[in-house]
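Good day; I would like, with your permission, to put a structural problem before you. What I wish to show you is a protein chain and, alongside it, a tokenised description of its three-dimensional fold. I would ask you to consider whether the tokens describe a fold that such a sequence might reasonably adopt. You will find the record immediately after this paragraph:
***
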Amino acid sequence: MSSEITAITMPKWGLTMTEGKVVGWLKQQGQRFAEGEEILEIETTKITNVLEAPEGGTLRRIVAPAGATLPVGALLAVVAPEEVSESEIDTFVAGFAIPEASADTMTDGDAVKPRELEAAGLRLRYLELGEGDSVPIVLLHGFGADLNTWMFTQPALAEGRRVIALDLPGHGGSAKDVGSGNAGHLTDAVESATGALGIERIHLVGHSMGGAVAASLALRRPELVATLTLIASAGLGPDINAAFIDGFVRASRRREAVEVLHLLVHDPALVSRTMVEDVLRYNGLPAAVSRWTSLPRSRRSNYRSKSFGDARTGSFRCPTPRRSLHACLCTFSMTRGTCRIWRKRVRSIVC
């Protein structure tokens, strides 16, 4: 009968996750659920996310109450048919042991820590996963973010190819010198980084501000960029959310940071404590703060628009409606000259 009992355990989201906190259960004990339904919310040092049911069943026993912090692999709940007795579930819970990580797994975990390289006279932090002969993928994050933006995406892509996530200048663990702060300066850094990594051809992916940088590099070096994928990209038109950028740079208190981060998500519950702390820590970058706050408020939106330009003026063309509350995911094939657009409803578009 124990074969009919399934354990719900603390997942491992991202390479650095070692434990998680149960924020709250979305299903109650005794309740049935279908595959893919959200069961509970979990907070890590990086994000707050929901755990979806891998298969349907009945939640017979909640082992970890809301507020409990447990290591990866720990037992959170038990799923079993109604005919399974309580005593059988008691035995299962009492005998459950967290699987030990293999030596190979631990070695791999140690090997995938971020590293640094020199590019365009700057020190850049990057994380590289995967190996193989397929064309490598380079991932560029948005304004105020870092390589952890891709913590779920990067491992999923790293089969048979190298996948490199970069910290752009002035972000994450990279040098805080942002130079002119425009797309050209950031593009120089990314172009130089690909050379330092010995890459001759890439699939280039950019989110938000990173999308503008990615488009700029694709226009400059079409022989380097095999494909270009832009997610809610800046540079596709003149409209930006200057209120977000202004609030992000100026935020010095927790409440201010929370209000700014709520602009990024449809569900405010997704804003975790660590996200707020990271925003406040970002304000320790005097070059970025000084450059932005020194501009008159009336010029900030215009400055950003000019700094990142409009990718539609080049050979890359992907129009998207102005002031649209949709994220534009646009994949442009440099070889075929095609463009595909998918849109998904979001709360706000920023860069």
Q: What stands out?
A: The two ends are 54 Å apart (CA to CA). Confidence is low (pLDDT under 50) at residues 102-110, 299-307, 310-351. The first strand starts at residue 6 and ends at 9.
